[in-house]
């Protein structure tokens, strides 16, 4: 639940009074031309940027202006547009790092509570391996994350986010730089997790994916929400097409083509 | 020759300890600290002032030295830790120099530090203590060497346990990408602060031993060169390797002090002094070219750098 959130950099209002609500247990897509403020909004919601004004409520609690780690601990977890796999750590260490409330993460605990830590590590390792199996990364467990392909990194990021037992995941361009096969698998996971009750919001430029997986689409332009609805409704909305046209530029035209293709072909 | 080995191993031990603290900052957390000498100095001065002017017993003065350097670490870190890489380096190198000048000439402070005249006469109790524990047969240098290397071993083991623990895993994550670690629900600032404070405490203890080894305290001992020597040692041994600082320090000081033993027929004292700088410089270049991860560093991790 985001209400009238604003964030500007210098004189540029990147997010200019955005208001939107996300339904729990659904996949919501956030689309809009480049510069519409989607990623900025993500950064504001997850605490990486402080909002200039407005309110953000997650699960009945205000989280506006809270720090990123505090928001993540509440169960609102994000991934990044450019994957942030921790390159010089193994795949398994990437997973283990994400486990919440670890005793051994306190300074000196390792000196005084070795047994408690060992037990917790074992449990976390089992959980991590289960998830890695599920995401077909189990045989990569001891490889450095840097050696993974782009698609595998996206899978690792999602698996790593799940280690935190979140209730809602924000995916920033999950399909960017991912080969179609892995991309399809990624979306299968998203669909399955949604069926288990997880809430997703994804920023995505691949209209095909947006139309296929999302149940609700929110369209942003110039820092504001211009319309929202089912994929079907949004696809036929004249305002959306105008927004893409109005913004200009090659990438935008491509996106329009995709929207039109969907309309006539799909 | 024995004398050379002794004095070399003594200073090598002290700098190994100093570099262990730095290795926690840079090797494991990725904090670019170029003001490490400040912790070295605050440890030494805290002990020296407490001993000579307040007559504080040995052990409490050592502990106070570590507490003081921890505090300075926190004070420096609170504003500086928000800065990334090069900016942190600039701020820390400045703080090191500011701190030295305060010790040297700040009104009020010099009542205690005695400014450029320095402090002496704080080391007797430390050296007499060896008789009490039955080590009277050791020379003062041998005794200090034993204490220093025991400390290096203990600190090394304690750090090894910490780095292998989940706490160390968070630090490594921060070194890779602090935003990713934030997104995973970790309070990155708190971890950086802890790493900085702990490394500072280790640096402070190294400073106490250093003061013991030379028997006096003077502000101009604590020039930025000490920070860079610690950096050189860490790079030689391999940053982010547990025992790299130890190996690096022995090699560094073997070369640095070794030139003193070149017979005068070959080189004058001044020439030998230049030669050691050249030797260290050439060694750093050779290491960077042929083994950029350092002597004990992890080749695989190095190759993964983009």
Set down the secondary structure blueprint.
The complex is a heterodimer of chains A (266) and B (306).
Chain A: E1 2-9, E2 12-20, E3 27-31, H1 38-45, E4 53-58, E5 61-62, H2 68-73, E6 76-78, H3 91-98, H4 109-112, H5 114-134, H6 150-163, E7 168-172, H7 180-195, E8 199-203, H8 207-213, E9 216-221, E10 224-229, H9 231-235, H10 238-247, H11 250-265
Parallel strand pairs in A: 3-8, 3-9, 6-7, 7-8
Antiparallel strand pairs in A: 1-2, 1-4, 4-5, 9-10
Helix pairs in contact in A: 3-6, 5-6, 10-11
Chain B: H1 2-28, H2 37-54, H3 58-80, H4 85-105, H5 109-113, E1 119-120, H6 124-132, H7 140-164, H8 166-176, H9 178-183, H10 188-214, E2 216-217, H11 224-237, H12 244-258, H13 269-290, H14 299-303
Antiparallel strand pairs in B: 1-2
Helix pairs in contact in B: 1-7, 1-10, 1-11, 1-12, 2-3, 2-4, 2-10, 3-10, 7-10, 8-10, 11-12, 12-13
Summarize the structure.
Chain A is an alpha/beta fold and 266 residues long. Chain A has eleven helices and ten strands.
Strand order of the largest sheet of chain A: 6-7-8-3-9-10
Q: Report mean pLDDT of chain A, rounded to a whole number.
A: 84
Give the N-to-C terminal Cα separation of chain A. 31 Å
Helix-strand sequence of chain B: HHHHHEHHHHHEHHHH
Task: Report the major sheet of chain B.
Answer: 2 strands, antiparallel
Overall pLDDT of chain B: 88
Describe the fold and architecture.
The complex is a heterodimer of chains A (266) and B (306). Chain A is an alpha/beta fold and 266 residues long. Chain A has helices at residues 38-45, 68-73, 91-98, 109-112, 114-134, 150-163, 180-195, 207-213, 231-235, 238-247, 250-265; strands at 2-9, 12-20, 27-31, 53-58, 61-62, 76-78, 168-172, 199-203, 216-221, 224-229. In chain A, helix 3 (91-98) runs parallel beside helix 6. The longest helix of chain A is centred in the middle third of the chain and has 21 residues, at 114-134. Chain A is globular, with a radius of gyration of 19 Å. The mean pLDDT of chain A is 84. With 306 residues, chain B is mostly helical. In chain B, strands 1-2 form a two-stranded antiparallel sheet. Chain B is globular. Chain B starts with a helix and ends with a helix. Classes of the chains: A alpha/beta (266), B mainly alpha (306). Chains A and B meet through helix 2, helix 3, helix 4 and helix 5 of A and helix 7, helix 8, helix 9 and helix 10 of B.
